[in-house]
Prior knowledge:
Elements: H1 9-13, H2 17-24, H3 29-42, H4 49-56, H5 64-78, H6 95-127, H7 132-149, H8 168-171, H9 174-195, H10 198-217, E1 227-235, H11 246-266, E2 270-278, E3 290-299, E4 302-310, E5 319-322, E6 332-333, E7 337-338, E8 354-356, E9 363-368, H12 375-383, E10 388-393, H13 400-417, E11 421-425, E12 431-433, E13 439-442, E14 449-457, H14 463-467, H15 470-485
Parallel strand pairs: 1-2, 2-3, 9-10, 10-11
Antiparallel strand pairs: 1-14, 3-4, 4-5, 6-7, 8-9, 11-12, 12-13
Helix pairs in contact: 3-4, 3-5, 4-9, 5-6, 6-7, 7-9, 7-15, 9-10, 9-13
Amino acid sequence: xxxxxxxxxxxxxxxxxxxxxxxxxxxxxxxxxxxxxxxxxxxxxxxxxxxxxxxxxxxxxxxxxxxxxxxxxxxxxxxxxxxxxxxxxxxxxxxxxxxxxxxxxxxxxxxxxxxxxxxxxxxxxxxxxxxxxxxxxxxxxxxxxxxxxxxxxxxxxxxxxxxxxxxxxxxxxxxxxxxxxxxxxxxxxxxxxxxxxxxxxxxxxxxxxxxxxxxxxxxxxxxxxxxxxxxxxxxxxxxxxxxxxxxxxxxxxxxxxxxxxxxxxxxxxxxxxxxxxxxxxxxxxxxxxxxxxxxxxxxxxxxxxxxxxxxxxxxxxxxxxxxxxxxxxxxxxxxxxxxxxxxxxxxxxxxxxxxxxxxxxxxxxxxxxxxxxxxxxxxxxxxxxxxxxxxxxxxxxxxxxxxxxxxxxxxxxxxxxxxxxxxxxxxxxxxxxxxxxxxxxxxxxxxxxxxxxxxxxxxxxxxxxxxxxxxxxxxxxxxxxxxxxxxxxxxxx
Length: 493
């Protein structure tokens, strides 16, 4: 408990108490815990960045211990949907093991965040948090850490997606510098709040929102599209543990036939099914319309989760793209063991996310489920010629909160690449997102549904797509050198 004699001198005696406490005192552990929890609540599905900025303020005065508490609380709250995995009977896990396994996975995510944020806070305190050069260096360090972590198995969302869906103007900055720029700007805003630099804070807020709004206003319109695709999206809403039973497969075939009839009647270019819709080795009857579906295939001795392309009239897939980033526990277990999913263990495919389909669909950048959190892969595919984005997922039995986080990531990826994005998921979100991050269409969650979606393809590129991450790396190196070699006082006044 914080007693009166533990408070800074200025706070005890009334001399500019707020500024004195903010700039000289390390927040107590309970405030670090509350601030971290607030940060977790501010993330999607809420997506209120102004709440996040407040929650980030204590980070600039926390030691590594306080930073660890903050990081653990933030991730445990933002990833609370993991607890909804219990019971794991759909994965074949016995009831007695289910709760410990789910809680253990949730806590592992919290521990990983604690270590990373604690290390970041330690570096900040060593460099001197009151220095602007430190703030800039630390903000970009955090941003690039999220970018690199997205290549690994345990990262889902971070500060880069925090403005969505609540502040789409701020999210428009992703057109210039992707998720790293969004993360760095928000940390800088919190530093200005901590330092009580109101004029600079107002300037940053106005400029950031102005640039973001300008980027969103300048995205290509549908009338500038090279081709406009017409796609029928089928949302089966099948329970994962029963997906490959005879009854559920009968339901899915019925839905597929309905989708094919609707596509043929409305002149659609293809039908789209979500991740894992087709069992391994399943041959389809000749279809009147092309099919783009999630499913499974065998590559020598390995089983792959893939996007499969069936041209009209074909009974077997003619092209495919394999899932590269596997979901921990469900598809991948440390040590190279098979995952616990109902389909057994699957092997990762190749990293490129570009699927070169024949006209009219053309090249498409593909993210299968968990891969949506890795923006670099989709960005590279767009640079290589993709005219639109496809995100497919299962997301059963995850709750609505995860679907909403998936939607926020889809909005971010669309803004980053200046591409229309089509999302097809077993339980939702099945949606169409514009290059400006707007939800144009969305099927009702957790319901069997069909939807016809008009999807323009584009060739223009965002600044983030054209330049990539290298300008920001160089900028960070400049800030870092200023931090390391400056003779300024390193400690807060």
